[in-house]
Write a structure and sequence with these properties.
232 residues, alpha+beta, Four Helix Bundle (Hemerythrin (Met), subunit A), 4-stranded mixed β-sheet, 4 strands
């Protein structure tokens, strides 16, 4: 398959993102290194595609890559977040694209949940100076981000989820997919908030999927025993 890639470039950091495969996005110091990292992570993204029941045949080399847009990155890029939106991400979603993207997003969530569950009781390796969140803090951070992403989509988080921070993320995620579906199909969000510049659905999916997968892979890499997603 031809892999469509968007590059987001800042002075000290660059992201390469597979625009048709939300969550498959890697960063490095240069665009070439980011693209190399992206291709290297294809086997780690494959479980997402399998869970979403989507055919996934990534190219083995850069010859199979098509660069569709180069974005100017900023402070967020330097910090480690793919924060620039591609022009194509403002395009509407038809029913087929919406179904596919939701399947990949749900699969990304499922991969994170499975990896996190498999790492319970496993000591995560620290950095050279002893830094790095432990597993409960990573899970809490992901939950906080999903609340923020829901707000960026233009929806309020469910009151039940706000009242109980320990509540499973299923309610937040269901609210996210309901809001995203409403926006994509031209319907009002059930519980809207006054978001000045709401994210369009395509970018919202890419950002959410990237975040959970980035932390799933972090957990795997920092586990003393590798926590992997089994084949199905």
């Amino acid at each position: 398959m031809t892999l469509k890639v968007v590059l987001e470039v800042a002075p000290k950091r660059a992201f390469a993102s597979a625009i048709d495969w939300p969550g498959w996005s890697r960063a490095a110091k240069t665009p070439d290194e980011a693209l190399e990292a992206l291709l290297a992570y294809a086997p780690r993204y494959a479980p997402v595609a399998r869970r979403a029941k989507t055919s996934f045949r990534p190219p083995a080399t850069v010859r199979g890559v098509k660069f569709v847009e180069r974005l100017t990155g900023g402070g967020g890029t330097e910090f480690g977040v793919p924060g620039s939106m591609a022009k194509s991400e403002r395009d509407p979603l038809d029913a087929h694209d919406l179904k596919r993207m939701l399947a990949l997003l749900r699969a990304s969530w499922a991969v994170f949940d499975r990896v996190a569950a498999g790492a319970v009781g496993v000591e995560l390796l620290k950095g050279p100076r002893g830094g790095g969140r432990d597993l409960p803090k990573i899970i809490g951070h992901v939950r906080e981000a999903e609340v923020a992403y829901l707000a960026q989509l233009g929806s309020r988080s469910p009151a039940a989820a706000d009242e109980d921070p320990g509540r499973p993320m299923a309610l937040l995620r269901r609210t996210f997919t309901d809001a995203l579906t409403a926006i994509a199909t031209g319907h009002p969000v059930a519980d809207p908030r006054n978001t000045q510049k709401p994210w369009p659905p395509r970018y919202a999916v890419r950002r959410s999927a990237w975040h959970v997968l980035d932390h799933a892979w972090e957990i795997q890499d920092r586990s003393r025993r590798q926590v992997t997603e089994p084949r199905r």
